[in-house]
Amino acid sequence: MCYPVPCETCGKTTWAGCGEHVDEVRAQVAEIQWCDGHPR
Which ranges of 1-40 would DSSP assign to H, the alpha helix? Predict the structure, then answer.
């Protein structure tokens, strides 16, 4: 199961878990608060 966690880089919300429930996590978070990812 996936769940929301704070991004360690920007502090916005991202996800952790199996990866099969990301859409459910995203549905709980305002788009402006979702982390779009960062270059490694």
Answer: 22-26
- The answer to the question of residue 40 being in a domain is no
Q: Has residue 38 been placed in a domain?
A: no
Q: What is the pLDDT of residues 13-37, one digit of tens each?
A: 999 999 999 999 999 999 999 999 9
Structure tokens at 15: 């996800």
Q: Establish if 16 belongs to a structural domain.
A: yes
Whole-angstrom distance, CA of residue 34 vs CA of residue 13: 5
The pTM of this model reads: 0.85
Which structural domain, as residue segments, surrounds residue 24?
A: 3-33
